[in-house]
Amino acid sequence: MVLKEENSKKSIELFLSIGLDERTANNTVNNNKVTSNLTAVIHEADVTDGCDRTTGNLLYSVATKYPANALVHRPILLKYIVTSKIKTPAQLEAAISFFTNTGAEDFKLNEFEEACGVGIEVSPEDIEKAVKEIFEENKKTILEQRYRTNVGELFGHVRKSLPWADPKIVKKLIDEKMFELLGERTTADNEKPTKKKEKKEKPAKVEEKKAAVEATPEPSEEELNPYSIFPQPEQNFMVHTEVFFSDGSVLRCSNTKEVVDKHLKVTGGKVYTRFPPEPNGYLHIGHAKAMFVDFGLAKERGGCCYLRYDDTNPEAEKKEYINHIEEIVNWMGWEPFKITYTSDYFQELYDLAVELIRRGHAYVDHQTGEEIKEYREKKMNSPWRDRPIEESLKLFDEMKRGMIEEGKATLRMKQDMQSDNFNMYDLIAYRIKFTPHPHAGDKWCIYPSYDYAHCTVDSLENITHSLCTLEFETRRASYYWLLHSLDLYMPYVWEYSRLNVTNTVMSKRKLNYIVTNNYVDGWDDPRLLTLAGLRRRGVSATAINAFVRGIGITRSDGSMIHVSRLEHHIREELNKTAPRTMVVLNPLKVVITNLELDKVMELDAKRWPDAQNDDPSAFYKVPFSRVVYIEQSDFRMKDSKDYYGLAPGKSVLLRYAFPIKCTNVVLADDNETVREIHVEYDPEKKSKPKGVLHWVAESSTGKEPIKVEVRLFEKLFNSENPAELNDDWLTDINPNSKVVVSGAYAVSTLKDAAVGDRFQFERLGYYAVDKDSEPGKLVFNRTVTLRDSYGKDNRCQNALCHMGI
Question: Can you give the residue ranges of the Glutamyl/glutaminyl-tRNA synthetase class Ib catalytic domain (predicted)?
């Protein structure tokens, strides 16, 4: 033990001599692999007597990032660093990239120098000139967007023209130029920018065109396997992230070899992921993407995925939501390796919080919520931040035992109140809530926060890949800071873009509001993009997963996926799986005057469009009698060239039956409303009319067809992005998003349809049997129309316009 401490002391002294700050040096000796690498690099570079801080930081980067397959060339790189031929992070990054590609093979020195910008001097004047030119080119945009301008893009333009420029000087000059052009920031500059609407894409056609298929380019590796971007568990010793502190020090977080070896022994080298929903609402289509990422990666690698309920807030959680989540995960086709709850680890989390206090990394605070907010805005430390450790331990114990009132104390992590990352502003680890827990009962009156519990339980469950959406990216520093502070195993964290779909809301707060205030008919309302709502609407898990896979696991944030893209995948699935049938939504009586009164023919109708004549199961029987019904929208008093419906004196074909010709029209008393029409049919089928109509007939004289209720759903919100309307988002709800047709007629074979059965109503769309169905009263939900009307100038505003396609 004494020898180990002596070696650590010598390593720290060595690391301090090359300009590392004390915190980084101390953190480094806790990582045996980095310590060994950095010591070797310092000796190879022959700077055991010390060097300047700039050189030292570059050497540190070599120790943590240099490729193992090119160690034979490392002395050459170190020589270039200590002689200041490579002196910027950009040059070093290029050098490491060069050797990663070269490996142990021989290389030409001139090619190496060219790749790394050796000998190229970029003066401040050169940088100033480049910055000026970039600002001139982008002046109009900068003046429009002001401080919302993407400075990173400006920085990128400069780096593109001057790749070896000092990034600190570039950043300084850009900031100065921004201030010179725009002046002080205004209140409006600090407001959240409005997202631009995605350019409308052309709707995908249902019909498959051979030429289009042949023209499809070869898919990339990522398209074939979207999980190929993720590293293997045994690679989990690399530096995960760098946490920059306000005092200039840097915490480089990584696992030691011993920690990784211990982790791999527990997991057997398998991938371990987790799907961690909060049980405070129903899952929506965004969660379908999360499941695809979490469960999908584990399945693809032969690993395990936990279903973990993130149940740290007892006030918002319900057993209803817990049951729903488990059921819907299974419906989506995923099988959890194990179902756990964050509350399963409440004791371990509490013990680790006590250890965090003992190490000086947490303290009990008495500020109110408003005071915490104010102090964070001002980057000020809490008055209780530096209280003695023993005092915080005593108070935290009193919090646990219920001796302190709710709202009078919290446990906060001692991070960095002056950091540029607001997620390092001494986040709350525990708060007092005298509320029984749905899963843990009344044992606890203090509950951990998401920021404290999430990463800790990831570590306790030996998660290899902690995958989440991009809004959590700024929490990465806090995530690793906490695990590092407790010497816990660190999972690999990767963020992907969240799924945003047009004409809906996916905020749980907003969803909960419209559900509880009866703007919709519950969490499974078919107008919602909750997974329960989509299922009730008739959408299959297969279609949802195909949609999510098609989007991919990208990091491009802020994009809005048009709902027509989802509908395309729904149609593709239903076109293959939904049998055809006939339903008339708004019936118009048609009397076939040349057909005997009592005559009923049994005709064959196709369940599938490509049915073979020798396959009886591909057909169903429909009665054809003297009285049939067609859609009201399929008849006009005045004909036109572009109209293929029925009109006086005109012929149409009744699908699977005979041509009919209108011979007479019976009007109501108002002399305008058509009450019924009289036709003659062509039993020999000699006429060949262009128009083809669907229909339903009486099964016997005077016996009306089966009556069903049909619910026609449209987009719930008129705007593509209702969230942009801020407080006015509720005014954007589409009043015609649900139209109920109560008197539709259906063919008799539908009488035995069960809840969840899906059909294509010919010429109308795809429909599913709703759970509100009762014996003798079937209810159908429209899943999707046959074709997408998006992008057409003459889009129907009323749902009924889609009935007469």
Answer: 270-575
